[in-house]
């Protein structure tokens, strides 16, 4: 290292590397020459913060998890004790989530981040820390990585479904889409299912209708007058169909029910050979007419 004055009994050595072991000896020198060196003394410098991890990348994604990997810092400056993985969700919240990974000795690190939300964009960054005398020495963060989770079927149904009868065969439906947080992907279409509470033999009483995602209302026609129906609506995206809404019960207006039943009953008995009088009676509270035949 060079010569120092004879009166010097201590020396600070600068420019050493962190977490490195050095060996020192001291030799006295006069006009005659140089004496024997002292016994060797070794000393290890303290650890320092490492450099940033490198090659942060995504390996695999799912609707609720992201599998990441990275390589440890090029400049360790000691022994890596832990990593800190930070994520931010861009779609719904600006909250920052910090996750610490400890006891990782491998130069290659992989980790699955779980509990994520479908169809959401996240930004990740990672840093490493050494430990010296109980103090965490954190290095710089890596470059950021932006990645999105995959779609999943909607986790909520459309809200506030209402059904209003307009005519004997038509009802009017309105609804509201669920929050985008629960749509889990771009909307594809709404699905309305309905059926009569008491099926009538020979009459179509249930069906499925599809409506574009931009609309929030629809007319359904071709129903049976004076008939009670149940309605439900659900939502679809490219990943699948979400849960149905609560059931809404409504009865169509009964204005044409008698005429329809008469036509049906007359058709069933039109093959009778002898002329007959036809008498129809409707009891209070009963929608189905009673048919009686009397000969001339």
From TrEMBL:
<dbReference type="InterPro" id="IPR036116">
    <property type="entry name" value="FN3_sf"/>
</dbReference>
<dbReference type="GO" id="GO:0005524">
    <property type="term" value="F:ATP binding"/>
</dbReference>
<feature type="domain" description="Fibronectin type-III">
    <location>
        <begin position="52"/>
        <end position="152"/>
    </location>
</feature>
<dbReference type="GO" id="GO:0005886">
    <property type="term" value="C:plasma membrane"/>
</dbReference>
<keyword id="KW-0812">Transmembrane</keyword>
<dbReference type="InterPro" id="IPR003961">
    <property type="entry name" value="FN3_dom"/>
</dbReference>
<keyword id="KW-0067">ATP-binding</keyword>
<dbReference type="InterPro" id="IPR013783">
    <property type="entry name" value="Ig-like_fold"/>
</dbReference>
<dbReference type="InterPro" id="IPR050449">
    <property type="entry name" value="Ephrin_rcpt_TKs"/>
</dbReference>
<keyword id="KW-1133">Transmembrane helix</keyword>
<dbReference type="Pfam" id="PF00041">
    <property type="entry name" value="fn3"/>
</dbReference>
<protein>
    <submittedName>
        <fullName>NEO1</fullName>
    </submittedName>
</protein>
<keyword id="KW-0547">Nucleotide-binding</keyword>
<keyword id="KW-0472">Membrane</keyword>
<keyword id="KW-0675">Receptor</keyword>
<feature type="domain" description="Fibronectin type-III">
    <location>
        <begin position="1"/>
        <end position="48"/>
    </location>
</feature>
<feature type="domain" description="Fibronectin type-III">
    <location>
        <begin position="157"/>
        <end position="255"/>
    </location>
</feature>
